[in-house]
Amino acid sequence: MNLQKVISGFFFILAMTLNFGFFYGEMGNAEMHSTYELFAALIISLIATALKIGDKTQIGSVLLASSLVADIQLIVAVIVWTVIEYTSASGMTPYHTATIVSLSGGAFLANITSVILYIGETLKSKR
Amino acid sequence: MRDNALWIILQRLRIPLIVIIVTYAIAILGMVLIPGWDGEKAYHLTFFDAFYFISYTASTIGFGETPYEFTYSQRLWVVICIYLTVIGWFYTIGALVAIISDKTLKHELMKGRFRRHVQKLKSDFIIILGYNHVNAEIIRKLTLAGIEVVLIDHDADRINLFKLEESSMGVPVMVGNALLSSTLKDAGVNSPYCKAVVAHFYKEDKNLRITILTRFLNENVNVITKATLRDTMTALLDTDIAKVENPFEIFAKRFDIALTAPHILTLENWIYKNSDLADEASFLPQGRYIICGYGRLGKVIKEKLDKHGMDYIIIDEKGIGTKEMIKNETFIRANADDKEVLLTAGIESASVLVAGTQNDIDNISILITARKLNPELYLIARENTMKEISIFEATNANWLFMIEKILINKTSLQLSQPLKHSFLKKILYQDEEWGTSLVNLLKAQLGSNPQLLHLTINEEKAYAIYHALQEGEPIGLNILLKSLEDWTNYHKAIPLFLKRNGDEFLLPCNENLEIGDEILFACDALSREEIEIIALNVYDLHYVRTGEEVQNWLLQKIFNIKNKNQS
Fold it and tell me: Are A77 and A103 in contact (CB under 8 A)?
């Protein structure tokens, strides 16, 4: 057993599950989607990215790319939320909530890709 | 991925990045969870409020407590946050500084700079491996001749030493192991502009290794290297791309020539700019030769003396003479630096002494003793390094054999002026009569120190001749020698050498020129100018060929009409 693999695997999968937790629920209903969960998803996603940095292999670069996609989607979702909360006159509408949730849905897909790649690489390994 | 520097930075930044993310996350989450008081009721900071607050607190800017004044429970958490995040930042900055001063990273950055610099070279360049006395001098001569060089040495101190030199301006340098093919690739051995690799390592197996590597990386590149042992030399020559310089063989050839044709040596010294033609050329004295040291130098000298049937005796402390030598009593096994030994060898009646041991101090000591015992003696001394040059000069040796100087002269001439080098190679096989007549001719016509002019028949250097030849007009070499003041006369220049595709003509006389010919002239300042003008200027070329000025076609027509009217 490789401790490094445990830690990185833990963060990759946690990033995906947290993301799913936020994404799951009625699209337009803001009460179904917790800010805390979005915050946690973003933080764990950033940590996962940092863990993938500096890997020179082919699979490492694809992993990093998918992780960056997830980060960007989540950061955009957070910014949209903040801007609407503080500056929009109408406040949170179901339309806005749907935008945020679908952005996190995109991030969720990227997370799934990176987890699948990670599992594939692990299975390929002879050790 | 060739750029390793970026990856090194990214890999080292992994932990610091995670530390910052985690500390921020803890601080923000705490700020959101702990309830505050807005004066009327309890409230929670939003994530944005918390991020805003932590951002300016962690970076020690400190705008104060927003949006409302904090409660004590919040302040307690803020204290923890400040220490947590500031420590995170300090750790990251420390890590960054450590990365920047990291040796591996510095090396990678230097390698990257070097590679980019080499790739930017867009004219012919030469790779020099190792910065030593010989190569320093070669670099100086090549940069003077306007040829780009690239330098590699495994020792960072020596590279720094080189950077202090004047000739280091614009020369790409790298600290690296020249024995690895990756280093040679970085130095641009695969570039079409790379013309040669110079490797003058003291250890000859290194030279051989570099030659073989270069052979496989790019077989169009020449390797110029030295070999003093015969088996390394043959191994090097077998690679087909090496130009091998054996200073001992070179000296032996000179020694041979000095015995039979000293004027050739005068010519050679003039081309190397060691001295001018006025120097008295004299044969090496006949008589008994004493050779101190039977190493690589002693052996080649013995061969030449045998060839001419001269009388000699060898003194060496360590070597063992062959049976034949012992039978002929031409070998003494003793320390040559001993008065008694020199007397036994017959120094009082000898005419030449060669101080040719591997030790410079021994050689100097032998010279001094020998001079005392026989002031008439002709002294030949071997000097292994150029560090002691002034002391050797003070001993008044008649002929100094400097290994390093031979290498410097030969390599830089071969690289910067290949035509002169081919000329030299050719004249070494001429006899004394030829040498004497050429030296006398040059001296009579051009004085004791004529200049050398290298002319290539191409569009850039000989525009007029190039175009005339392209139109199929025959032009003889003599056209170039005609005087611009009076076309029936000649100026003083003497064509020494003509090179055409592989053919070489010594002292060419009125050959028909072809495009691509390379010609070497001996000339003075005036005739140099005339040759260059004739080669370049269409009008002057026309004048020396026909004796007429080129006519302006309009004026010509008017004159023709006038002439007709008059007649």
Answer: yes
CB contact under 8 A, A86 and B17: no
Q: Which one of 2.60.120, 1.10.287, 2.40.50, 1.20.1070 gives the CATH number of domain B4-101?
A: 1.10.287
Model confidence pLDDT, tens digit, residues B216-225: 888 888 888 8
Test the B interface: residue of A67, A82, A83, A92 with most B CBs within 10 Å: A82
Phi and psi at residue B65, to the nearest 5°: -95, 120
CA distances from B493 to A18, B420, B512, B519, B538 (A): 91, 16, 18, 12, 20
* pLDDT tens figures, B40-77: 889 999 899 999 999 998 888 888 888 888 999 899 99
Chain B residue closest in CA terms to A56: B7
Q: Which of B14, B28, B47 sits opposite A50 (nearest CB)?
A: B14
Residues of chain A with Cβ-Cβ distance to B11 below 8 Å are 53-54
What the block records as the tokens of B492 is 């003083």
Beta carbons of A53 and B13 less than 8 Å apart = yes
The domains spanning B4-101 and B284-414 adopt the same CATH topology: no
Angle between helices B418-427 and B262-271 (to 10 degrees): 170
Provide the shortest C-alpha distance from residue B53 to chain A (in Å): 15
Does the distance separating the beta carbons of B7 and A56 come in below 8 Å? yes
- Of A122-126, B141-145, B450-454, B535-539, the poorest mean pLDDT is in A122-126
**Boundaries of domain holding A103:** 3-124
Taking only the tens place, the pLDDT of each residue in B345-374 is: 888 888 888 888 888 888 888 888 888 888
| B410-458: pLDDT as tens digits | 888 888 888 888 888 888 888 888 888 888 888 888 888 888 888 888 8
CATH topology of domain B118-245: Rossmann fold (3.40.50)
Collect all residues from A whose CB is shorter than 8 A from any CB in B. Answer: 35-36, 39, 43, 46-47, 50-51, 53-54, 56, 78, 82, 85-86
Query: Min CA distance, A109 vs chain B (Å)?
Result: 23
Alpha-helix residue ranges (DSSP H) falling in B166-322: 181-186, 204-217, 230-238, 247-260, 262-271, 296-307
Q: What confidence tens digit (pLDDT) does each residue in A15-69 have?
A: 999 999 999 988 888 888 888 999 999 999 999 999 888 777 888 889 999 999 9
| Rounded Cα gap, residues B356 and B258, in angstroms | 17
Pull the structure tokens for residue B208.
Answer: 């051989």
* Record: fold of B284-414: Rossmann fold (3.40.50)
Chain B positions in Cβ-Cβ contact with residue A36 (cut-off 8 Å)? 29, 32
pLDDT of residue A107 exceeding 90, the answer is: yes
The domain total for chain A is 1
Contact criterion met (CB below 8 Å) for B355 and B382: yes
| B321-324: long-range pairs with CB below 8 Å, 24+ | B321/B294
Q: Are B11 and A50 a contacting pair at CB < 8 A?
A: no
Taking the CA of residue B42 and the nearest CA in chain A, the distance in Å comes to: 19
Mean pLDDT of chain A: 89
In chain B, domain spans: 4-101, 118-245, 284-414
Confidence of residue A14 (pLDDT cuts 50, 70, 90): very high
Q: How high is the ipTM of this complex?
A: 0.82
Q: Give A61 to chain B, closest Cα distance, Å.
A: 11
Mutate to test the interface with B, among A43, A58, A87 (most CBs of B within 10 A): A43
